[in-house]
Amino acid sequence: MIPAGTLKYKLTFFQNVDVQSDSGFVTKTKTELFTCKAAKVKITGNYNVNAKELFNEKVFQFKVRNNKLINENLIVNLDNYDYRILLIDENKFDFSLTLTIEKINN
Predict the structure, then answer these.
(1) What is the CA radius of gyration of the chain?
(2) How many domains does the chain divide into?
(3) Contacting residues for 80 by C-beta, under 8 A, at least 6 apart
(4) Cα 78–96–73 angle (5° rounding)?
(5) CATH number of the domain that 9 lies in?
C-alpha cells in the first residue's frame, strides 16, 4: 500500500482523440481523462549519447494507485510539461502501478 503522505505530485492524464468538423476535416485534440496523486520514485540519471554529445534524458518514475484506465497511449501532464508513458509496472500485492515517463519535446 502506498502511504497517503507520500502522494505529493498531481498527475493529469490526457488522450488524443480524433475530432471531425462539419466540413469533414479530422484533427487530433488532447482531452483530459482524469487526475490522480502520485509518489515520486527515486532513480538515477539516465545519460545517453546522441550526436557524440552526452545528455540527460528527462525520465521520471512515479508510483500511483492501480487504475484500469492507465495505459501506454496516454499523455501525462506534470507541472505544465507533457510526458509519454514508457513503461507500466503493476504490483498486484499492494495494488499500485509504477509509471516510467519521458518528457515530450514540444
Answers:
(1) 16
(2) 1
(3) none
(4) 50
(5) 2.40.10.270
Sign of CA dihedral 24, 28, 29, 32: positive
pTM, to two decimals: 0.80
- pLDDT tens, 53-104? 555 567 889 999 999 999 999 999 998 999 999 999 999 998 999 999 988 8
| C-alpha distances in Å from residue 83, one per residue of 3, 7, 53, 75, 89 | 25, 19, 23, 6, 17
Range of the structural domain that residue 34 is part of = 4-20+27-103
User: 66-72, long-range: CB within 8 Å, 24+ apart, which pairs?
Assistant: 66/90, 66/95, 66/96, 66/97, 67/34, 67/36, 67/97, 69/13, 69/33, 69/34, 70/13, 70/97, 70/99
5 Cα distance to chain centroid: 21
Going through 1-106 in order, the beta strands assigned E by DSSP cover: 9-20, 26-41, 47-50, 53-56, 59-65, 75-78, 81-91, 96-103
Q: Which set of grid coordinates corresponds to residue 91?
A: 504490483
